[in-house]
Every structure is written in structure tokens, then in C-alpha cells.
Write a structure and sequence with these properties.
The structure holds two protein chains of two kinds. Chain A is α+β, with helices and mostly antiparallel strands. Chain A contains six helices and 13 strands. Helices cover 71% and strands 1% of the residues of chain B. Classes of the chains: A alpha+beta, B mainly alpha.
Amino acid sequence: MPELEEQLTFLAAAIEWPPTPNLSGRQLHLPARVEVAPEVRGRRRPLWQTRWALAAAAVLVIVATLLAFTPTREAIAGWLNLHVTINRVQNLPTPSPLPSAPLGRRLGLGDPTTLAAAQSHLGWKIQVPASLGAPDEVYLMPPPPTGPSGGEVTLVYSKRPDIPVSGLTGVSLLVTEARGMINENYFQKTLGPDVDIEQVTVGGHTGYWISGHPHNFVFTDADGNPHNDTLRLATNTLLFDDNGTLVRIEGELTKDQAIKIATSIG
Amino acid sequence: MEGRPADDSVLIARAQRGDSAAYEEIVQRYQQVAFRTAYVITGSSPDAEDAAQEGFVKAYRALYRFRLGSDLRPWLLRIVANEARNRVRSSGRRHQLELRLAEGFRPGDAAPSPEAVAVAADERRRLLAMVNALSEGDRLVIASRYFLELSGEETATALGIPEGTVKSRLSRALARLRTRVEEAASA
């Protein structure tokens, strides 16, 4: 070891650190229990523990408090039909800035690919919004063990007229699609009190328009570890179920723009 | 196995089932490195305590997503370091990290003369003063690698930079420190 590095190593033992506070016990104020989504709880090996699960992912958690507020019970049933649940909280944690990396890694979208190649890996048809033209980039989260059951594909639209580039994602639009299956969970949304949820109809399918203040979206790092503490804020989102395919259109667009895009899917 | 500390994986599995006592054992195991990591980032003992505390609470909430079999320490440090950086960012201020030598420090494996002890202590003081006088980036990477004894991956996590950047930044920081040491020696 070079002399300087050796001196620094020896110096470490002589450093006087501030006394470490005792963080365990009552000082820590732990929540009453680990916050586990009901659908996840009880699994021996939850989907979350697979390699990148959260990015594809997600569960929406309906908490009891939501029952007391909008949307109505009927709307919540609609959420359940989408196999999604929602967690509404009073305070959103501060998001960390996005790491500098290519878009796919930065947002945990999976591997870059083409539409044709992605389609060849999936047992269901990718729905492409005709009104947006061909996507600029395509990312694929393959099925297990790497990704969620059925896989997930994300179409990236860098710039589109009348839809500003989001400062949160760096692109105009993200269209994410996953195959929904009963008892499996795909999307986790943590909504602050100032986020609006509105039930909408998209080509005869029930959908939800989530708008207002940006909301949390959990994603994983390049190693596949979920980042609970590294959150990006998702912008306005239209979420709907197209015959078993869960579609999420996200960007700084209006509800009308989102529905127009959604109805052009085919 | 009575008296032997439980493996992290055992404690995690218990904590994931809601056993807060198991999690408190995890906290006790890692609170020192977590607090010191936060201290290196914030430069403030109260801020480091808040960041470590909040980080451990967030980690508890997220524990069900922890992948069993993974290394717990970098995962915890990532959360605590993010919390520390968030605090620095939101407060708009970063305290100057000022590392000090412990009074009366004696290397444990020798019985040197009082003169040798005094000389060695003086050398350590001068070296630490030079580390403290480095730029913030240089100081942070050296403190993380040598004083906190974090791995390259953990240093990258703590500083929020890629691991490759840690290597290059550390190399440059050591070069600048070496220059100062040599200049002081020839003065």
C-alpha cells in the first residue's frame, strides 16, 4: 500500500467521531407494523423480491381511509377490477433527483429493444397509440424470473406536438403496458392529498385519470434493488384496462389529450 | 447457537413479519456506520442523527421489498445517505465537515517512547488538517473510503455517484493530498 494511503488507514483509528446516538427502541418511532400491501403480505416470496420487480410493477394499495373520501365505493370497485389499489398519504417523501443514466436505466424501464423484438417475447399484443406515431424508444421487462408475470413494455415518445417534455422524465410521454392477472399486482401509486383521481371511460373500458400534484412512483436501481428512498414523481397519468392489458399513459398532458391517445390504441 | 448474533437474513425475515425487536437489533448493528456516513455527508451531528433516524424508519417501511440474500448494509446506507443528502439539499446549507483526532490516541500494538508518540500524534494532526483543507468532494471521498472504511460500492451509494467515478475521484483526491504533503515536507 502506498505510504499516504497507509497513513490514512492508520489515521482512521484516531478519528474522533461524534458519539453515535442510540437510534433503536423508542427513539426510532417505528410504525406499528411493516407496511405491506395486503396482496403482497403472506406470499413466501413476493413479486417485489424478483430482480427488478418494482419498476414493472406495482401494486396499488387501497387503505381504509380512502373509503371515507372520494372516489366512491363504486370507484374503488373499479380500481379492484383493474387489479390496482391506491395509497393516499398526507405527506409525500422528498424525491431524490434522477440518477444520471440512460433513460431506461434511470427510470427502471428494462432493456432497450424494438417493437417487433418486444412483441416476440410477449404472449399478448402490444397496443400502440396510432395518434402518436411510432415510439422513439421501446423498453422491455421480460417475464419472470426477470420481470413480472406476462412481462411489461414501455413505449417512449421523446417529443410530441402540444405535449411538453416533462422535467421529471425528460420525455413527452411514457406508455407502459403490462398484462394484468387476477391476484397479481402491477402498479403502486402513492398519492398525496392534492392529487385528483377521476374515473373515465376509454373506448368502453373503465379507466382513471390521476392528475394535479405529481405523485410517487417507485422504481429500482440498475442492480435490481427497489429504491424506496429514491423516488421520481410521476406526472399526470391515465390508467386503464384494455381487455386484460393494463395501460398507463404518463406525461404533462391534459385529460382530453390522454383519452384521445388512449382511444387511438389498436 | 446460544449467544451467537443472528445473521442479518434471520433478523430481516423476522422484521419482515413485523417483529420490531428484530429490526431494532438491525438498527443497533448498523447505527454507527449509518450515523457516521450521514455525518460525513451533512457535516452536522444533529442533522446526521435526524437523517439516520429517518433513514432507518424508511428502511423499516420498505423492508418487505428488501431482497433476501442481498447485502443489507449497502441497502441501509443507500437509504440513510439519500436522506442525508435530501436534508442538505432542502436546508440549502452544508456544514463544513471538520474531523478531529481523539485526544490521547495510542496505537495499540507498540510501546513507543513519549517522544515518538508526540511526533506521531503531530504527524497525524498535520495530515488530518490537510484532509480537512481539501475541497469538499475530495474530503468526502477520502473520508468515506479511509475513515468510514466503506467499500467502493458503498462509497458510491453514500455520495450518490457511480462506482467508477469514486475510483477516479479518489485517485485525484489522493494525488492532490500527496502534493500538499510533499510541499509541507519540503517547506
